[in-house]
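W.,

You were right to be curious about this one. When I first looked at the sequence I had no strong expectations either way, so I just let the prediction run and decided to look at it fresh. Below is the sequence, 407 residues in total, followed by the output.
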Amino acid sequence: MSAQSGTAWKERILDPTEREVPLLLDLYREFHASPEVSGAEEETAARLAGALEAAGCTVTRGIGGHGLVGVLENGEGPVVMLRADMDALPITEETGLSYASRRPGVMHACGHDLHMTSLVGAARLLAACRECWRGTVLFVGQPAEEVVAGAKRMIADGLFERFPRPDCAVAVHAGPDIGAGRVGTRSGILSAGGESIDLVVRGIGGHAAHPDRTRDPIVLAAETVLALQTIRSREIDPNDFFVLSIGAIHGGTKHNAIPDEVALKLNLRYHRPAVRDQGLAAIRRIAEGTAMAAGMPPGRMPVVTVIDESVPPLVTDAALTGKCGAGIEECLGAGAVVEIPPLAGSEDFAVFGDAGIPLAYFRIGTKDEGSGDAYLHSSHFAPAAGPAIRTGTVALAASVIACARRP
């Protein structure tokens, strides 16, 4: 390195991080106490934009909704994109934390507050050690991840035309099943693709005293729910990943009235597109076949709709993951980066990969003795924030230097 010898850059990351963590914790608590749901991240985006500007970035707001991009330039070199999601969940917090959500029914239960704080931490570090790297870093604050819409909207709004196109992109995510101070990752398929499906089971309603004069959609929906579970057990190759869950059933309004229809909300997870297609075809076939067996007339067949909340599997680039992982481990120590199995959850960071950007993705450990056993999307999720912020900040900054280190 021109200004640094050997691994001296490591100290330029680690030493400031230790000093920054108390300040970053204050920012984290602000994010956590003021959560906003998908598409409504106005105050969150303003707070994140201000923190990135204070770190030395040039920030553009309002990209694909409340999305934003902070640009930190440092001469000729690679363009590295770091992304943090900003939205919270419609969950009532029950952690008892002193900085718990001040907004009833809304909570940062998926660690997006940690992700944003780590992004700011990385911006501060990279702005202070420009002698260690070269090129351009894009700090992307992405809205609407929980409804897997934000990445698509930012791309559609010109993310890769209005700003330098990234040579690669890196993101971190809270990992409550990983010990604090450690980082989990893998090459290839890291998380599942997902589809959300609306299934309307239609019937012929009437008086509960005369079910013989109806075609009861509630009974039909129950039969359909059970039949759908045979897709995984009897149709999908056991070696393929496939999960089908029914998240909601709504039908009827009165004790003695059989309704005309029942609405079901389904969620499908997969690793291979061919398996997704097989599953969707089976859902349609089973829904219609069950209706036909119940004597439903052709005009009352069920309606299956794949809604606009699709996300592809997250596939990470092996070379990029190895390079960034080595840089992270150089900072955090041997054994800090561990390989994890593919995840059943979905992540719309994958959409940037579908746009042709090589991806690396790291799960930052949030579990210690004081963090409890609550998993993501739980009203009791209370991660070990200090250690996680340190790990996330180091992971993002070290990834940039690994990709854009000065020769």
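Here's what jumped out at me. The chain has two domains: 8-191+313-404, 193-306. And, maybe more interesting for your project: Residues 56 and 127 are 7 Å apart (CA to CA).

Coffee later to discuss?

I.
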